[in-house]
Amino acid sequence: xxxxxxxxxxxxxxxxxxxxxxxxxxxxxxxxxxxxxxxxxxxxxxxxxxxxxxxxxxxxxxxxxxxxxxxxxxxxxxxxxxxxxxxxxxxxxxxxxxxxxxxxxxxxxxxxxxxxxxxxxxxxxxxxxxxxxxxxxxxxxxxxxxxxxxxxxxxxxx
Amino acid sequence: xxxxxxxxxxxxxxxxxxxxxxxxxxxxxxxxxxxxxxxxxxxxxxxxxxxxxxxxxxxxxxxxxxxxxxxxxxxxxxxxxxxxxxxxxxxxxxxxxxxxxxxxxxxxxxxxxxxxxxxxxxxxxxxxxxxxxxxxxxxxxxxxxxxxxxxxxxxxxxxxxxxxxxxxxxxxxxxxxxxxxxxxxxxxxxxxxxxxxxxxxxxxxxxxxxxxxxxxxxxxxxxxxxxxxxxxxxxxxxxxxxxxxxxxxxxxxxxxxxxxxxxxxxxxxxxxxxxxxxxxxxxxxxxxxxxxxxxxxxxxxxxxxxxxxxxxxxxxxxxxxxxxxxxxxxxxxxxxxxxxxxxxxxxxxxxxxxxxxxxxxxxxxxxxxxxxxxxxxxxxxxxxxxxxxxxxxxxxxxxxxxxxxxxxxxxxxxxxxxxxxxxxxxxxxxxxxxxxxxxxxxxxxxxxxxxxxxxxxxxxxxxxxxxxxxxxxxxxxxxxxxxxxxxxxxxxxxxxxxxxxxxxxxxxxxxxxxxxxxxxxxxxxxxxxxxxxxxxxxxxxxxxxxxxxxxxxxxxxxxxxxxxxxxxxxxxxxxxxxxxxxxxxxxxxxxxxxxxxxxxxxxxxxxxxxxxxxxxxxxxxxxxxxxxxxxxxxxxxxxxxxxxxxxxxxxxxxxxxxx
Lengths: 158, 659
What we know:
- The complex is a heterodimer of chains A (158) and B (659).
- Chain A has 158 residues and is of the alpha+beta class.
- Chain A is built from three helices and seven strands.
- Chain B has helices at 2-30, 33-36, 39-62, 69-74, 81-86, 92-113, 119-143, 167-196, 201-232, 243-268, 272-294, 308-332, 347-379, 387-404, 418-442, 449-471, 479-488, 491-516, 620-637, 640-643, and strands at 383-384, 518-524, 529-532, 535-546, 550-561, 564-576, 581-585, 587-590, 594-603, 609-617.
- The radius of gyration of chain B is 26 Å and the shape is globular.
């Protein structure tokens, strides 16, 4: 009698240990994956003046945010388009091949993702302008507020 | 006057909710049946009052009563009726009223259909449900009152964001909320069980249908949102790993885990403590989702108004409920007795594996969603975590889970042998392998990984079919026998088969569309031709057009397959009054092989139009798959044992499960 309780207790422990070990193994692998992915796949966000400050090298992928400078949009051959993104301190030229979103307008906020080329232009493969006409990407608004060039009311909701 | 009635009804609902929370709780503590019985009627009264408030607000929207600030901000008299109605929840205040309405609806559901629950459990469940109602009613009345008047009364309203004027989006929030809030019932059951100190098979049987219903609504809600993003945003994608999408996906994952672990509690009386924790976590993630979306820490189409006061209030609700629940859990969980034994290689072991992987996958989404917020708060550094992160982490964690899905249901309880499982699955494995090899040989397009992805989905579908044919002994007995076995199958078994097959279908669609899609961005003049996905598409030209509250340009495309005209697609660029916001309407041709998707872009300098044309192969399988999952949930919900839970036969009226 005592024997059976002993075995059942130890087997209960064993079985529980197996489950716990399997769980820890999965969690460990997952944690490793997450750390690896966080190091390799995240994208930093910069404004034009920060590109100079942070010494961003050509070929590094990042997001560029700011205002589309008024009068700077030039449509080129085929589907290419060039425009300037500014944070009122520095300005950088963006080249983009593709279709601009519905809400892309001169004088409004924009976030683009891509890389710098050798000549210091930003080659974007993604242009994000968000869903609301009064919407200013939050990152841009924050940065513009920091730089003191934010005009209150411009980006405020109705 | 009607608006004031609505406002007053909300205040009365708060008072009722307070009563629903405290009186039964005290009654259950004292063992006073009279006090406990207050819970049911209070839940019904609270629901009726919120119905009054909700329809008062809807009345204001339908009659375009711009004396209400909320209506003025979010509606317009020229808007079609459907969007006047959906405009009620197309803004922060109104959507919160919808939230408490659904919350109260679930409470009323427990009161009505919980006839066979022990009175103590029922009163505690309703009390917890009432406390959630109190929190959100306070939130509405203090920070988000939709019934505030304007003076002077404006003549015209500001209109609803045109992107939200879409049939799929009109019904997306109600379904999603039904899912989020439905999990509150599982939460309430978990808290009540912790107070009770008792979790048994009956408890699991009661909590399962509610979790199932919530999970079904979440499934449909997420699918609708995804369909909207695909069709209305005009970017051609269906999932962007946007924080707001993740906010709805995390509770879905945990609810799926909860569904599976509740089975173990019901059948084997094991995993009780874990199941309670999952029930708490599922609703906690719903609350986190609500916080992320509503507090303005994230900017998106869902963040209606950025108001720090609201964020702080929701954060407070979050802390009280999640913190309180977890503290109660830590205190009371040791009281629950551990249940049956099982070896790792068993049905229970399989379900534990399912839970581990689903929860880990959810954790990876959670980290990816919140890491940028945390990093910005701590260091000020701004980053974005995008699809590459999620594809890598979430994808790799889900892979073993999906591979194991067909295996799980074939394992026996307590202790399983590997050989019988392999014997049964060889046909499915062989079929999958054959298709993968065929795809590798025939198709040279796209990455080599894709055929394996499609094979993974197929493995799930075939695995589900094998499992079903095993149950009904197909090919081993005469057809009539198999047919009668099929009819005799428990509905929950049939539902599981359907849901697993639905996951497989969706996975086939996801892999096919993300890697085999054809994308063309071209400048086209009228008469220009393009070959996409086996179709020849001709740009016919464009014409100006007007709608009820917009003007625009409609471009037309003739689609030929061989020498046969298949369709003429229209894609529109609409400019909405007021605000001049532009939206794009997609021209869509849906076929089994895939969708042809045409979008008008900007006018070019030389008179041409920028046009985007995609061919999205097999994308319909994503929506079909999610619908099959939903169907599986529904079939499972009609299972007999949810109705005949207690020895006492339920009355006829109670025989219908909650819809």
